[in-house]
Amino acid sequence: MKKKIVVFTGAGISAESGIQTFRDANGLWEGHHVEDVASIDGWNKNPSLVQNFYNMRRQIALNAEPNAAHCALVTLEKVFDVHIITQNVDLLHERSGSSHVLHLHGRLDLACSSLDKRLIYPVVGHEIKMGDCCEKGSQLRPNIVWFGESVPNMEPAIQLSEQADIMIVTGTSLTVYPAASLVEVIVPTCDLYVIDKHINLARIPKKSITMEGTASEMVPKLVNQLIAHNTIL
Ligand code: OAD
User: Fold this and answer.
1) In angstroms, how far is CA 144 from the centroid of its own chain?
2) Could you tell me the residue ranges of all domains in the chain?
3) How close is the Cα of 170 to the center of ligand 1, in Å?
4) Sign of CA dihedral 42, 47, 52, 58
5) How confident is the model at residue 27 (pLDDT cuts 50, 70, 90)?
6) What is the pLDDT of residue 35?
């Protein structure tokens, strides 16, 4: 049976594809405070601002290309049972060819009803317009998990993480909960690799094997190591 590798990714893995991370620019994100544009309160206060903001992000994501880190994770599937859990709302893991991707914070290619998040629709092009409505007549909004909302995919993410033989964490500051708690649910025998441009030792479990550097450099390096090691065994 193939070993199970769970890869937990954040904004840093898409940084080299030209998509800005959240916390690398003094708390400002594309010129906005995160809480104004990524919270249910922000949406209730100013839906047009939030809609435009996500329309802009969708356009950036659509024009971005997967980088060497996304592609290396596809190669890993040749040898391992690979499951990606991502906080990213871009679709770069799917576009690079990864087979199993679980989105914790939603997806930019989907809209949902602002009345009932279970009513989900594909977004055609890069825009959801104010006035675009669900079948019940309510405004469509980005299908994103905002601050102040529950994270429906947390339960399957915990289950996957508990089953991991190896976990790779990359490009996340591990500051946003409950997502960040996934590194705490792995079993004691699970090898935990952390790849980040600036590793914050205070945020990661003591047993972590750290690889400081960019995702496009370090993820392919680790993938090659894991494949070589597994082939020898
Ligand atoms: P952050 O912006 O908090 O963290 C990005 C991480 O990526 C940091 O640790 C950086 O050091 C690292 N990094 C930057 N460039 C890198 C590169 N080229 N290679 C490797 N690492 C790099 O992003 P997340 O942890 O993903 O949620 O943020 C978590 C959540 O906070 C997001 O999903 C979003 C945000 O608010 C919502 O919008 C609900």
Assistant:
1) 11
2) 1-19+65-105+151-233, 20-63+106-144
3) 9
4) positive
5) low
6) 82
User: pLDDT grade, residue 25 (50/70/90)?
Assistant: low
Cα–Cα distance for residue pair 79/75, rounded to 1 Å: 8
Q: Domain 20-63+106-144 adopts which CATH fold?
A: SIR2/SIRT2 'Small Domain' (3.30.1600)
* Cβ–Cβ under 8 Å, residues 169 and 194: yes
In CATH, the number for domain 1-19+65-105+151-233 is 3.40.50.1220
Six-digit token string for 170: 């990359």
pTM for the whole structure: 0.96
**Which residues are known to be catalytic?**
105
Dist. CA 231–CA 32, nearest whole Å:
47
Q: Helical H runs in 97-204? A: 154-162
28 CB under 6 A from ligand 1?
no
Q: Which two tokens stand for residue 126?
A: 């890069």
Ligand 1 centroid distance, CA of 65 (Å): 18
Evaluate: CB of 182 within 6 angstroms of ligand 1: no
DSSP 1-63: -PPEEEEEE-THHHHTTT---SSSSTTEETTEEHHHHSBHHHHHH-HHHHHHHHHHHHHHHHH
